[in-house]
Specification:
By secondary structure, the chain is α/β, with parallel strands linked by helices. It has a single domain, classed as Alpha-Beta Barrel (TIM Barrel), CATH 3.20.20.150. It has nine helices and twelve strands. Helix 2 packs parallel to helix 3.
């Protein structure tokens, strides 16, 4: 099975977005997921947000293009501290900026505040039609709270009920946020038909402390089972490497490159 395998800028968060793109392209990737990167010595930020100017969006798009990468995913967030109408409008601005960036997938992490769950569903239900018209697909990943369990992901998918809203399957986070009590392989058959994008992330748990900053294949995730289950369930979307081990840049480069081969070798058998 041949699927797009991209890389997020998270392994290179200490570099600027332009620098991260250069390293990702050098490792052999064609697609980049836009996460937070260095903007100065003390701050990091996602280069495209709801309040980004057209010039900022164009600059990020140019940085990716200069490296030969498609900025096909953008991480975003909802502002549920606002009144609902304002929060919906803000998210629509994010969608518009994602479209201007050339992004097909807008990654969302939900909310950890239970009192905001219904507000989140309503926001997404109202924003999804705008995303569909813009050619952007919202994809919700496991991140604790509203998405702690597969049941939570499925409930969100069914509640929003839009062609522009799907699930991003992140096996490492399922282990991380439950400290290994839940496994990403267990419910793959149920969730696979709803999955539009996937994250390549592993996780280890030592002394009850989970850690995702490990290179895929070196932790607890059984990637053969996860990827074969997704494909068997009809998944044809892109995959994005989010985390690898290593602290020095050379080691990170090596692990980012080897992870691409690791994933492609599994897909080649499917």
């Amino acid at each position: 099975m041949k699927l797009v395998v991209g890389c997020t800028t998270r392994p290179y968060s200490s570099l600027t977005f332009a620098e991260a793109c250069e390293h990702i392209a050098a490792a052999g990737y064609t697609d980049v997921a836009v996460f937070a990167n260095k903007i100065d010595d003390n701050n990091r930020a996602v280069p495209v947000r709801s309040d980004s100017s057209p010039e900022e969006v164009a600059a990020a798009r140019k940085d990716a293009a200069n490296a030969g990468l498609a900025p096909s995913m953008l991480i975003g967030s909802t502002r549920l501290n606002m009144e609902l109408d304002e929060a919906v409008d803000d998210y629509k601005k994010l969608i518009d900026n994602a479209a201007a960036l050339g992004t097909k997938w807008l990654l969302d992490c939900g909310t950890g505040r239970e009192e905001l769950y219904d507000k989140y569903y309503e926001l997404m239900s109202r924003a999804a039609p705008h995303a569909q018209k813009a050619g952007v697909n919202i994809t919700l990943k496991p991140h604790g709270g509203i998405t702690l369990t597969v049941e939570g992901l499925v409930h969100a998918y069914e509640t929003v009920n839009s062609p522009a809203f799907g699930i991003c399957y992140d096996p490492g986070n399922i282990i991380y946020y439950t400290k290994g009590e839940m496994r990403p392989e267990t419910d793959i058959d149920e969730v696979a038909p709803m999955v539009t994008t996937g994250i390549i992330k592993d996780c280890v748990v030592e002394d009850d402390k989970p850690d995702v900053m490990v290179t895929p294949g070196e932790g607890l995730v059984e990637f053969d089972t996860v990827l074969s289950g997704l494909v068997a369930g009809g998944f044809r979307g892109p995959l994005y490497v989010e985390c690898v081990g290593g602290k020095e840049l050379g080691e990170i480069d090596k692990n980012v490159k080897s992870t691409l081969k690791f994933v492609k070798d599994i897909l080649a058998k499917l």
